[in-house]
């Protein structure tokens, strides 16, 4: 990003602290239930890895890959299932984990898509909620941070398939 500098919006320390808090709530809410964490690839793999290690009840973890942005900063509006859930989730309490709810199109689609597998319940947990951009009616059951209408990168979120490895959430500003 020539001529630009990173503007850190949420630090690695803030992320870690908030995930600890949310993991406690989830551990309490799902005590005695058949918790199945469904991580939406690719964006959520870092958040999922940190979250599940702070959850202190038994948990199954699986993955599903969806795509609607490609290399763009705006949603195509059409969600592609790149890789379906591999386990039989019938009777499980499914918690979909994703990095961000933006337009909400991905999360709404996945929630509806999973119904056919007859889970006991379906809820969702996201690191970031960007409510100003919402196009469909959905709100996350668990969320770490609410952010303004800014295209953010890092901690799993990509720009042109790069920068997912940055340990914080940032955007770019003019130097
Ligand atoms: O609320 P929405 O507007 O639907 O946006 C949210 C989705 O967009 C990103 O995925 P993307 O399609 O970029 O794929 P990726 O996870 O591989 O980065 C992100 O990881 C969410 O899944
Ligand atoms: N990297 C990135 N991907 C997204 N997908 C939906 N919103 C965003 C965003 O703000 N940043």
From TrEMBL:
One of its GO terms (biological process) is purine ribonucleoside salvage. InterPro entries: HGPRT, Hxn_phspho_trans, PRTase-like, PRTase_dom. The keyword RNA-binding does not apply. Pathway: Purine metabolism; IMP biosynthesis via salvage pathway; IMP from hypoxanthine: step 1/1; Purine metabolism; GMP biosynthesis via salvage pathway; GMP from guanine: step 1/1. Keywords: Cytoplasm, Glycosyltransferase, Magnesium, Metal-binding, Nucleotide-binding, Purine salvage, Transferase. Its main location: cytoplasm. SUPFAM superfamilies: PRTase-like (SSF53271). It is found in: Cytoplasm. It is an enzyme of class 2 (transferase). It comes from the Bacteria. Its EC number is 2.4.2.8. GO terms for cellular component: cytosol. Its cofactor is Mg(2+). One of its GO terms (molecular function) is hypoxanthine phosphoribosyltransferase activity. Residues 13-159 form the Phosphoribosyltransferase domain. The keyword Transferase applies. It catalyses: GMP + diphosphate = guanine + 5-phospho-alpha-D-ribose 1-diphosphate; IMP + diphosphate = hypoxanthine + 5-phospho-alpha-D-ribose 1-diphosphate. Gene3D superfamilies: 3.40.50.2020. Purine salvage pathway enzyme that catalyzes the transfer of the ribosyl-5-phosphate group from 5-phospho-alpha-D-ribose 1-diphosphate (PRPP) to the N9 position of the 6-oxopurines hypoxanthine and guanine to form the corresponding ribonucleotides IMP (inosine 5'-monophosphate) and GMP (guanosine 5'-monophosphate), with the release of PPi. Belongs to the purine/pyrimidine phosphoribosyltransferase family. This is Hypoxanthine phosphoribosyltransferase. It comes from Caloramator quimbayensis. The lineage of its organism: Bacteria, Bacillati, Bacillota, Clostridia, Eubacteriales.
């Amino acid at each position: 990003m020539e001529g630009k500098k990173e503007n850190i919006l949420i630090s690695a320390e803030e992320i870690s602290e908030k995930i600890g808090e949310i993991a406690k709530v989830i551990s309490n809410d799902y005590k005695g239930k058949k918790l199945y964490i469904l991580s939406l690839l690719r964006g959520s793999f870092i958040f999922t890895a940190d979250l599940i290690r702070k959850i202190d009840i038994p948990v199954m973890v699986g993955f599903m890959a969806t795509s609607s942005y490609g290399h763009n900063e705006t949603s195509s509006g059409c969600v592609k299932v790149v890789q379906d859930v591999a386990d039989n989730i019938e009777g499980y309490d499914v918690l979909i984990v994703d990095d961000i709810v933006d337009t909400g199109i991905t999360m709404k689609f996945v929630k509806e898509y999973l119904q056919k597998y007859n889970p006991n319940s379906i809820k969702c947990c996201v690191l970031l909620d960007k409510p100003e951009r919402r196009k469909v009616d959905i709100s996350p059951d668990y969320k770490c941070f609410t952010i303004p209408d800014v295209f953010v990168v890092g901690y799993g979120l990509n720009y042109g398939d790069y920068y997912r490895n940055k340990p914080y959430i940032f955007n770019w500003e003019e130097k």
